[in-house]
Amino acid sequence: MQRPDEYVVHGSRAGQMAQPRDLPAVDRLLREPVVQALLDEHGHTLVAGEARALLDALRPAVVEGTVPVADVAVSRLSDALEQRLQQRLQPRMRAVLNLTGTVIHTNLGRSLLAEPALQHMLAMMAGPNNLEYDLDSGARGDRDTIIEELLCTLTGAEAATVVNNNAAAVLLTLAALARGREVIVSRGELVEIGGAFRMPDVMESAGARLVEVGTTNRTHLHDYENAINERTALLMKVHTSNYAVQGFTKAVSEAELAGVARARGVPLATDLGSGSLVDLASYGLPREPLPQEMIAAGCDVVTFSGDKLLGGPQAGLIVGSREMVGRIRKFPMKRALRMSKLPLAALEATLMLYLRPERLARDLPTLRMLTRPEAQIRAQAQQLLAPVAQAVAPRFAVSVMALKGQIGSGSLPVDRLPSAGLALAPVQKKGAGRALDELATALRRLPLPVIGRIAEDRLLLDLRCLEDTDQLLHQLPLLQEALA
Ligand SMILES: *Cc1c(COP(=O)(O)O)cnc(C)c1O
After folding, report:
1. H or E element: which one contains 320?
2. How many domains, the chain?
3. Which of 193, 203, 288, 347 to mutate to test the pocket of ligand 1 (most atoms within 8 A of CB)?
4. How close is the Cα of 71 to the center of ligand 1, in Å?
5. Whether residue 410 has its Cβ less than 6 Å from ligand 1
6. For residue 192, what is the DSSP state?
7. I want to staple 432 with a disulfide (CB 3.0 to 4.6 A). Which of 81, 225, 239, 426 is the partner?
């Protein structure tokens, strides 16, 4: 027997506009064989909900008389329903290819986790674990135990604790050690890092009174000394990671300040921002201060991020003296900022990689990418030149180009990483801006979206972070199709 919808489509009304009565009821749509298969796979709740939403979305246009009869045929509607379901089940969080040239890109998720970190996380999350359980005594344990010994070994600190991120580490340190009292900071170090994290505001949130000393470009030891009084709770240094003051400048080092702190009986904290547990200079990279140096210099508390140069998960690491870390750990706010088991597993495995520093440049993706030789990146660009050129021809001309990348995440903003990549330039000068936007959009719409950067009328693909050439190569036919 002919089905009513086919009769409608193929009958005398083909080409006419649909009437509201042509829209099937939800139940009618759900009885379609194709939709039955969808129901088996996804269940009634999702499929019926999307079917209703689909029909509701169509109705106003049908009432207006602007939808051809063919478009409300049940077979057509079930196709549309299947598409809707696919979209609905597509996660918002997507893997992308970072070809921006910025290795630790905050908008693209910062550091990539090392394989052992991924494995450990998966193994620990698949079932119960000893997060807060002491396997020796069978008594309740403390989650800090998981990483404290490792962090102390790596930094030389007496004690360590971790929270959600470094912003939380700074907030907690200030609240625990200086609530209702004064914190002395140089005017040259009142930083704002992205996302509304400004040192003066953090002080206020923590309930500490900021006492600014020195000037934007120069702060001396006596500036700190003169500001210390009986209300002083903390001397604070902040690593100016995302900008540089050059020229007539003077800052007091942690080592110099530690002497004063000790003599006056005031603790000294330093926020390193990124912090790196290995000397980057030994890899030919610009140097960042090391937490272990700060501990050796006499800092009582050192805070740094887990997902910047450390190359681990989002985390705020706090290392320092037993007394100060103990006060921080016991402060009630710690409970609200504590780290979840998921990143904690990743952090433990990441820190463990540092026990074998000789292998680090191989094992840690962030360091591996930061240390990729320029010649190797250039060779990769040469290899990709012809296939990419073919995919974007005739609208874009492609060339291999020397590029300057960045470490990223606020670290070392003045230093650039010599890199290489492909420059894609519109052939037609007229409408070049629009062509570039179209190209960038097409790249972003690939199954594994490709994120480059536009500079000087070209789209640049920095290949430093492309460890698997095939990830780009295999998508070129789709790119070609999108641009045709
Ligand atoms: C990045 C940074 C922070 C914040 O660290 P998150 O881990 O992103 O919360 C704090 N202070 C400084 C100096 C930084 O560079």
Report:
1. strand 316-320
2. 3
3. 193
4. 53
5. yes
6. E
7. 426
User: Are both 381 and 462 inside the same structural domain?
Assistant: yes
User: Could you tell me the residue range of the domain that residue 151 belongs to?
Assistant: 115-361
| Confidence label for 275 from pLDDT (cuts 50, 70 and 90) | confident
The pLDDT tens digits of the residues spanning 216-234 come to 889 999 999 999 999 999 9
The residue whose two tokens read 């002491």 is: 134
Q: Are residues 172 and 235 in the same domain?
A: yes
d(CA 482, CA 473): 15
Q: What is the pLDDT of residue 248?
A: 85
CA–CA dist 410, 234 (Å, integer): 25
Per the model's pLDDT, the better-predicted residue between 224 and 275 turns out to be 224
| Whole-number Å distance between alpha carbons of 312 and 364 | 9
Q: How far is the CA of 242 from the centre of ligand 1 (A)?
A: 10
Distance CA 370, CA 309 (A): 10
Residue nearest to atom 13 of ligand 1 (CA): 273
Q: What is the mean pLDDT of residues 2-24?
A: 68
Domain boundary among 327, 361, 395: 361
Between the CA of 451 and the centroid of ligand 1 the distance, in Å, is 24
Looking at the fold, whether 77 and 126 belong to one and the same domain comes out as no
Atom of ligand 1 nearest to the CA of 315: 7
